[in-house]
Each structure stands twice: as structure tokens, then as C-alpha cells.
Amino acid sequence: MGGPSPVYRMFNPPCHRGGMKWGMIITLGALACGIGAFMPNGPMAPARDQSANSTIPVGFDPATADAQGSAPDYLSGEMVLQQRQDGHFYASPTVNSVPIEALVDTGASVIALTGADAEAIGLNWDQSDIGIIGRGANGPIQGVQVRLDTVQLGNFEVHDVDAMIIPEGLHVTLLGQSFLSRIPNVEIANGQMNLSEY
Q1: Is the pTM of this model over 0.85?
Q2: What is the pLDDT of residue 167?
Q3: 6-60+74-196 belongs to CATH 3.30.470.10
């Protein structure tokens, strides 16, 4: 075989320091190169919700969501995430009522779902839905822009959350700013990430 695919290289660039070979560990720096620099190019073809057999809206505008009667966010209490040995924070959010595992990425503009996680929560798309949805430091990012009904982490539940599906090349879902920015207080100190309502 000829080595890693171009998509793998986009999200896992080679590391030339210290003799390390292809990125076996996804780092926030590499993710920031691929996803964190995400700049939307406008709405793409919608993904379909298999569970409801309906279309999930794209191009979500938070400014108009409340006027359209979306459910209010529920933000209560405090949650503490511990930094793992790899230096990252991980969480187990529930997305559209389905639990998944995610890397908490404060540098990602939106939630970025792996293809497997998107399928697990009932999102469906076909090849014609996939397009360039942004540009990162390593080139174009291909995927599908979607809006999630709910994302819940502990006692924090937010509605109508921007996300994108990255069908190939992303190995862990990223919990980005489209969720984190709606938590009133997020602080990182001493190996802990604290999310709180105050």
C-alpha cells in the first residue's frame, strides 16, 4: 500500500520532531490545523434524520432560533473534567438522545462529528451531500453541515446546535465552541476543565 490517505494526512499531519512518525495521537494542535480553523462556506446539502425520516436544517442562525420557538437551553450546576495522560479533556455528551464520546476542543468552532458517531445518532447523508464546508491550514475540509436538536453534558443541555459531519479522516468527535460558548463559564486550570452556570 502507498501509506496514509490524503484525508488521514489532513487531520493527522506528520510530526518531524523527536523522530516521531505519522501522528498516532491526535493533538489539539493538529485538530486546530484541520478543524479549529474552520471557516464556513455557506449552507450545504442537508443531512437526513433516519429516526424521524425528516430533513435536518442547515445554516442555523442562533439569532433567529429563539424567535422561531426553539426550546430554551437548560444550564445548571457545575461539571469538572479531568485532563487525561495525553493532555486532552474528554467528555461523554448525549447528542439527540444518544450518548457518544468526544474530545473537548476549545479551538474548534463547531461540533465535528465522526461519520460513525453521526450514524449512531441517526443522521444520514449520501455522497452528493458532501462538499467543502471550510478551509483549514492543511486545505479544504469536506463534510456536511447540520444542526443538532440537543446536546447534553451533565446538567447542561443546549438546543439547535451547529455541527458538521466529517465522514472520513476524523477519528474522534470534537466538542467545539457551538456547544462550549453557550456554557456561562468554562475555565481550565491545574489539569481540570470546569464548566459552570456562574
Answers
A1: no
A2: 94
A3: no
